[in-house]
Amino acid sequence: MEALASTASHPSHKWTPPTDASDIVKSIHAMLHPRNIVLVGATDKPGNYAERIWNNLIKYKYAGGLFPINAKREAIWGVTCYKDFASLPERPDHVLVLVPARFAVQVIRDAAAAGARSATIVTSGFSELQDEESQRLAVELKQAIKETGLAVTGPNCLGNLSAGENLFTNIDDRIVTMEPGAVAVAGQSGAIVMAIRQALEDRGVGVGYMVTTGNEAGLETPDLMAYFAADPSIRVIVVYLEGVRNTKGFRDACKAARAAGKPVIALKLGASEGGRAAAMAHTGALAGSIETFDAISTREGVIRVRGLDELIETTECFVHADPPKGNRLAAVSLSGGKRGLLIDAFYSAGLNFAPLSPNASEQLAKMLGPGSIVGNPLDAGFAAVVDPSVYMKSIEIMIDDPDTDIVIIDAELPKAPHELRERNLRIVNDMAAQANKPVIYISAMSIGFTEFTKGLRKTLPDIAVLQGLDRAVGAIKSLIEYAGLRKEVPDIVSSSKASARALLEKSLKAANGAAALDEVASKTLLKAYGIPISKEEVAQTAAEAVKIAKTIGFPVVAKVVSPDILHKSDIGGVVLNLNSAAEVKKAFNDITVRVKKLKGKPKLEGILIAQQVKADLELVVGASLDAEMGPVVLFGTGGVDIELMKDVALAGAPLDAAEAKELIARTKAGVKLKGYRGKPALHEASAVKALVGLSNLMADAGNRIASIDVNPFLINTKLGVAVDGLIVLNNAAAKKAAEH
Length: 740
What we know:
By secondary structure, the protein is α/β, with parallel strands linked by helices. Strands 9-8-11-10-12-13-14 form a seven-stranded mixed sheet, with helices on both faces. Strands 20, 25, 26, 27, 28, 29 and 30 form a seven-stranded antiparallel sheet that branches.
C-alpha cells in the first residue's frame, strides 16, 4: 500500500516572491504552495474533519505529496498511515493539525523540527474558550509558533484554498470550481469566509485563494492581505474582520494593497455594541469603534461593506470595472419606470447623471427622431420597439462620449440561451474592453444565476454585472470614491518640536497616576503642541484674580482648577461674562465655596481667570485612543450642541495640514468656516493648526493618553482659540512609561 507522494511532478506556481519580499510574504507563499501536505490526527471515523479534508484533496487532485499520520494505524483511506514525522518518506512541508488541543502545541514543535514550513491548526479549544486550561494552551501555542517560525493559520479554523495548486484543505463538501481567480478571501470566521467564496462562485467570480484564520495565534488577516497585495494574480482582496489586533500591521497591509492598486473590501464586525460583544466572545478580539475604523482604513483604500450581499456586489464591481476617471454617470434603459428608479437611487446616494456632450446629444436626437426626449438616463424603449438597433447604438454613443466616466445599462443576464441578448452582451463587452471606462449592467432586483448564466458571465470579463439597485449604487459609489483617493498614502509622522515632546514626558511623569491633567496642565501641553490658547492665568486669591482680569481685559471667565473635577460646569465651576472687578471677586469666592462643599473634598489648585473670546462658531477638536485602530482625532460642531448636532468627523493620527483640511471639509462646521449664506469666512487656519497639533500630541504619546477634549474651540474671523481643555490619561500605560 503506497502513500500519495509525487513531489517531482508537483507543478510550480507561476509567481514566486522576489528575494526582497518580506518574510511574511515568503512564508505565506510556502503555506499556499506547499510541496506536500501532512494530516496529523488522521482518522476514518465517518464525517470527521480529517476525512472530509482528505476527500477534498483527492477530489480536486492536489498534485503534491499527501501523508496521513496516526501512531495507531498502519493504513487509512486506502494508503499508508505513518506513525510520526520521522517515518515519512520525505520532509513534511505543510502540516494540518487535527489532534485534540492538548496535543497541538507539541505537534507544532515536532513539525518544525522535522523541517515543515507551515501549518493549519483546525483544532479548537484555545482562546475562544474562557476556561483556565484553554487560555493556558493558547499562550503556549503562540509561544511555540513564535519560537519555531512556522507560518500558521488557526487554531479553530476550517482550512484554506489555493486554486492554482488544486489545494483545498477545507471541510466544505460543496462543489468548488478549482480555477485561479482574481479574488482572494481571508478572515477569522471559517463559515463566513466559506459562504463568501460560495456566493462569488455562484456569481461566476473566481476565487484564487481562501484562507480561514480562526483565532490567529500565528498569521493574522493583515498578514494575508500583505501577501495578496504582492501576488500579481490577485485583483481584489476581501476580508472578514472580527477585530484588529496589530494596528500597524493592518495599516501597512492596507498601504501595500493600495500601492498595488488593489482594493480591500472589508466586512467588519463591531458596528454595534452587540457586534463588538460578539467579536469578544468569538475570537477574543477587541473590537473598537466602527467610525474610527472607517476614518483610518478608508484613507488607506479599504471599502467597508455592511453585509454579505453588499460585499458580493462590491467585489463583482471591482473585479470587472477599473476605477473611473471621474463621477459623470450615464445610463441607458428600455423602461421609463426603471429610468425613474435609477435617478432616485443614484441621486439619493449623492451621485448625478451628467449632461451628455453636444455631439452625443445631437447623435441621439437624430437617431431617435423628432419629438423624442434625449436625456440622461436615456429611455430608449419606445424607439427600440420601432428599430431594435437604436438600443445598441445608444449604448455605443454613451460609451464613446468623452463627457461620461461610467456607463450603466439597465438589464440582466439571461437564464437560458437567447441569441439576440447574448450577441448584444458580447458586443458591449468588446466596446467596454476598448472604452477605458467602466461599463456596468444593473438588474433592479436580485436574479438567480443558472449554470448557463454562470458560464455566459465568464465570457464577459470587461463588464460588471450587479444585482439589486441599492447595492449596485453602493458598489458604484465605492468604485468612484476609491478612484478619488490620493494616488499615494505617505507615511505621515509627527512634526512636533523637541521642546513639546520633552514637556509631554515631564507632564506625564508629574501626573503620577492621576486620571487626568488639570485644565492648566492640559492647556500648557496643548499650547506647546501649537494649539492656540486663550489668554489666562491661575489665581490663588480673589485679589490676585482681579489683578489678572484687569491685565487680560474685561470680559473674563472664571473656572475652577482641580484634577479631581473633570466636568466643571456640572458643579457650578464656571462663571462667564465677568465685566468688573467686583464680579470677578464674587465669582472667585462663589466657586471656592462650592468646591469646598463637594463630597470627596476635591483638591482645589486655584481659579483660572481667562479671556472671554467672542465667537462666531463653537467647534470641538479632540482625540482619543481607539481600542483597535490607535490614536484618532475629531473635529466638528462643539459647545452645548455637540450631542444634539452629532456633526463630527474622525481621522487617524498624525495628520498633515492637507488631511486636516479634508477632515474639516467633511462636516457642516467646515461649510460654515468657509462663509455660509453671505457670512464672512472664519479663521480656518487656526482649526487646521489645532488638529495637526492634537494629532502630533497623540502620536507622540503612544498609548499613554486616553483622550483629549477641547470643547469649545472658539473661532471668529480673526482667530481661533481653545478656551477649555482636558487630557485624560491611560493610567496603566502612563505609569509604566514613567517608571522607566
